[in-house]
């Protein structure tokens, strides 16, 4: 295994946030299903309470008659709304990603920050449904956390001023971090692109302007296409970069691949350049296989595994697949996402649907945070004073907690105890 | 007239005969005669009564005293001395014990009677005193046998108790001696064992590994083996020391050979745990350049700050090729990395209903 690959395998991006397409689809399905179920429960729970108060003050068990049966005695939403399908969710995510990119343009943040924020956003809505948390707010949160992750520490005031909003950005911050399972390092193809062009330049026989033009175009692609697709989940940054380069200038990408995977197994017993001097003119046949590479790799099989023809073909195949994925969302598509007509026809209906089926408890992030803080404080207090409250007796009789945070606690019980998991219990 | 340093007024006591005081004559000794309980200094007593009986020199006292009768007082107050003498005499006669009486009441009555008599003897008028004295004599004559018997019993009881006390004291003393002996023995043992250890170290043999185990066992088994051990030790020690340089040398050489070698060297410590940082697919050389890099090479801030352009080139090339051979689709299907369900459930825990505590970062 090549040492670079070994090091890449250690990253959280590979270990926790890389999936095969099948896995990804399954994850989205699961997220969607779980969200539907939970939201349905919550909607029914809040529907059977007075609709005026957001925080219900009496504990009522969810309607025991089941999910879908309408309850004619209620005066609020009797039936469950139509929930979003996974495809619709994916569509919305893409839309909001484009919104995020526009916001990033507006802020004028560096490339890494854009990309990191987008990746955070995507990761978050991979395991949380769009129905559960408001994507419009999460955009700013993602930009904020993304900036911090990349070493720029913006002020909240700046954000609020630039976007003319009063949104409480910090309310969703911890949520986003949890959603990313606290993996803050995201690797990007931007520096890789620079490295690739450096390498190309060092070959010496390629036109400088060609390289510059290719880099420019590839950079443009990288700023948009991988972020609008699931490329970050399926391909490594290096592969994404090669794909973008090939979209920009196929010849250069192929040249680079050829030069890298140059090793020919010695059955033909000639013209294999053991030393990876990129200058193509120098071919030193048979000068010991002292590669400038890893300690002690000298066998032919190992070298073939790293830079031989077999792996080369595989790599090229992968790059081709990635290229196809990227080409679905070339930068020219930016206008597609911002166009009024597309918005009206595709996005708006889904958004309308979303407003009906969103999670009543979690849509308001600052409210959610406040509730959680209070519940935490209350729980800390109640731990200190074990049985001091007046309601204790009543609670004992009625078999439940009659205090104001009962719904919270009840739901916690319903959802089971995820106390062992540092990332919280399941949805 | 008692002075502060002389509360009982001994120093003021004056011989009524020669009028000398302790102040003027520090070696003065006072004596008295039980006949009349008058005191005088020894010199006067000698002078006055050496030549035979004479009259008491105290004014108004015409008792004939002999030199033999004078004795020095135990108590400072002669009245007390007199009373004590009387009580002694009475106790010699009335020496019945509680066990001799049937009831406590009888015993108390007896004691009361004795006390009354004593009081009359001590403080009575002359008339009553003579009567009491007569009673005393009568009683004695009457109960001579009893008195004799009681005396003997008393003597025996005294004997027994005295013996018991002596025995106890002896036992205590014996125990102390033993404790001291044991402490000394242990000290000696310790010193001896330490010397033995040192000898063994000098020899440096496998005996050392065997030693602690046997040492522990020996301790438990008790004195006998320890004695045997210590008996054998001096021989070893002496032989070790006695043979001098040659044996020492030989011992040390032998020790070196026999000592187990340190575990095979694992090589220098590798902080990266075997991770390799040398690139496989590319080579870093001076020819790598990029327009941006060149631009910053001319920038004073970057150059003066010590920015390393080679580092940047290395990083850029690393990122260009890292993961090129990693095929996510294959690997994730096969299952390297985290499984799907685990992934989803763990990641889905974000919208945790659960612990509000987790929300609190304070």
From TrEMBL, chain A:
Pfam families reported in the protein's UniProt record: Cyclin_C_2 (PF16899)
Biased composition (Low complexity): 45-62
Basic and acidic residues: compositionally biased ranges: 365-386
Domain Cyclin-like: residue ranges: 98-178
Keywords, alphabetical: Cyclin
A Gene Ontology biological process term: regulation of transcription by RNA polymerase II
Residue numbers spanned by region Disordered: 39-82, 266-297, 365-427
Molecular-function GO terms, alphabetical: cyclin-dependent protein serine/threonine kinase regulator activity
Superkingdom, natural source: Eukaryota
Ranges that cross the membrane: none
Family: Belongs to the cyclin family. Cyclin C subfamily.
Protein name in the entry: Cyclin-like protein
Species for this entry: Neurospora hispaniola
From TrEMBL, chain B:
Domain RING-type per the UniProt entry, residue ranges: 15-57
GO CC terms of this entry: transcription factor TFIIH holo complex
Localisation: Nucleus
Name of a matching Pfam family: zf-C3HC4_5
Residues in coiled coil: 122-189
UniProt record, GO biological process: nucleotide-excision repair; regulation of transcription by RNA polymerase II
Main subcellular localisation: nucleus
SUPFAM superfamilies, sorted: RING/U-box
Keywords: Coiled coil, Kinase, Metal-binding, Nucleus, Transferase, Zinc, Zinc-finger
GO molecular function terms attached to this record: cyclin-dependent protein serine/threonine kinase activator activity; kinase activity; zinc ion binding
Keyword presence, Transferase: yes
PANTHER family: CDK-ACTIVATING KINASE ASSEMBLY FACTOR MAT1 (PTHR12683)
The protein's name in its UniProt record: RNA polymerase II transcription factor B subunit 3
Record organism: Neurospora hispaniola
Lineage of producing organism: Eukaryota, Fungi, Dikarya, Ascomycota, Pezizomycotina
């Amino acid at each position: 295994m090549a040492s670079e690959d070994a090091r890449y395998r250690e990253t959280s991006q590979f270990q926790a946030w890389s999936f095969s397409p099948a896995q990804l689809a399954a994850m989205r399905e699961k997220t969607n299903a779980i969200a539907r179920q939970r939201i349905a429960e919550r909607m029914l729970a809040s529907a059977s309470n007075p609709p005026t108060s957001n925080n219900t003050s009496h504990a009522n068990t969810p309607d025991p008659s089941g999910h879908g049966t309408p309850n004619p005695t209620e005066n609020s939403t009797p039936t469950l709304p139509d929930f979003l399908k996974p495809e619709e969710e994916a569509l919305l995510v893409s839309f909001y990603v484009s919104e995020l990119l526009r916001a990033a343009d507006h802020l004028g943040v560096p490339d890494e920050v854009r990309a990191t924020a987008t990746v955070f956003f995507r990761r978050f809505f991979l395991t949380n449904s769009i129905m559960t948390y408001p994507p419009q707010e999460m955009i700013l949160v993602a930009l904020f956390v993304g900036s911090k992750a990349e070493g720029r520490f913006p002020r909240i005031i700046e954000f609020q001023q630039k976007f003319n909003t009063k949104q409480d950005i910090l309310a969703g911050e911890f949520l986003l971090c949890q959603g990313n399972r606290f993996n803050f390092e995201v690797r990007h193809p931007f520096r890789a692109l620079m490295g690739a062009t450096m390498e190309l330049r060092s070959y010496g026989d390629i036109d400088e302007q060609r390289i510059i033009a290719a880099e420019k175009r590839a950079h443009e692609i990288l700023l948009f296409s991988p972020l609008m697709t699931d490329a970050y989940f399926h391909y490594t940054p290096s592969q994404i970069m090669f794909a973008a380069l090939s979209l920009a200038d196929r010849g250069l990408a192929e040249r680079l691949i050829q030069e890298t995977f140059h090793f020919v197994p010695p059955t033909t017993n000639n013209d294999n350049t053991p030393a990876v001097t990129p200058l193509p003119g120098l071919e030193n046949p048979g000068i010991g296989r002292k590669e400038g590479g890893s300690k002690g790799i000298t066998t032919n099989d190992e070298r073939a595994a790293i830079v031989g023809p077999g792996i080369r073909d595989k790599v090229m195949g992968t790059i081709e697949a990635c290229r196809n994925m990227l080409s679905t969302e070339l930068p020219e598509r930016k206008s597609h996402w911002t166009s009024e007509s597309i918005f009206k026809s595709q996005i708006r209906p889904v958004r309308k649907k979303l407003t009906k089926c969103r999670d009543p408890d979690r849509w308001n992030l600052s409210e959610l945070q406040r509730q959680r803080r209070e519940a935490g404080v209350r729980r800390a207090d109640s731990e200190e004073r074990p049985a001091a409250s007046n309601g204790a007796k009543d609670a004992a009789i009625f078999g439940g907690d009659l205090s104001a945070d009962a719904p919270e606690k009840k739901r916690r019980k319903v959802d089971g105890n995820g106390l062992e998991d540092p990332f919280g219990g399941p949805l | 007239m008692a002075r502060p340093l002389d509360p009982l007024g001994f120093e003021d006591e004056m011989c009524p005969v020669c009028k000398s005081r302790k102040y003027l004559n520090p070696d003065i000794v006072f004596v008295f005669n039980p006949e009349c309980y008058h005191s005088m200094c020894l010199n006067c007593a000698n002078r006055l009564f050496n030549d035979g009986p004479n009259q008491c020199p105290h004014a108004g006292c015409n008792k004939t005293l002999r030199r033999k009768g004078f004795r020095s007082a135990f108590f400072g107050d002669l009245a007390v001395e007199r009373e004590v003498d009387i009580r002694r005499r009475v106790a010699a006669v009335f020496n019945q014990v509680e066990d001799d009486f049937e009831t406590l009441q009888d015993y108390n009555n007896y004691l009361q009677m004795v006390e009354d008599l004593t009081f009359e003897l001590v403080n009575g008028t002359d008339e009553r005193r003579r009567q009491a004295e007569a009673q005393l004599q009568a009683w004695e004559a009457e109960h001579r046998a009893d008195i004799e018997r009681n005396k003997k019993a008393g003597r025996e009881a005294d004997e027994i108790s005295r013996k018991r006390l002596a025995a106890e004291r002896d036992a205590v003393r014996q125990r102390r001696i033993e404790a001291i002996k044991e402490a000394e023995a242990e000290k000696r043992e310790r010193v001896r064992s330490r010397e033995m250890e040192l000898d063994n170290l000098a020899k440096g043999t496998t005996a050392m590994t065997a030693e602690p185990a046997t040492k522990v066992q020996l301790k438990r088994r008790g004195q006998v083996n320890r004695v045997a051990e210590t008996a054998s030790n001096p021989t070893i020690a002496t032989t070790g020391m006695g043979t001098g340089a040659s044996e020492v040398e030989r011992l040390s050489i032998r020790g070196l050979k026999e000592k187990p070698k340190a575990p095979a060297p694992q090589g220098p410590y590798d902080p990266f745990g075997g991770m390799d940082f040398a690139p496989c697919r590319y080579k870093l050389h001076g020819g790598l350049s990029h327009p941006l890099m060149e631009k910053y090479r001319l920038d004073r801030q970057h150059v003066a700050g010590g920015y390393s352009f080679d580092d940047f080139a290395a990083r850029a090339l690393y990122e260009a090729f890292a993961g090129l051979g990693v095929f996510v689709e294959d690997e994730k299907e096969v299952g390297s990395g985290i499984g799907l369900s685990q992934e989803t459930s763990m990641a889905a825990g974000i919208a945790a209903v659960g612990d509000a505590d987790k929300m609190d970062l304070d």
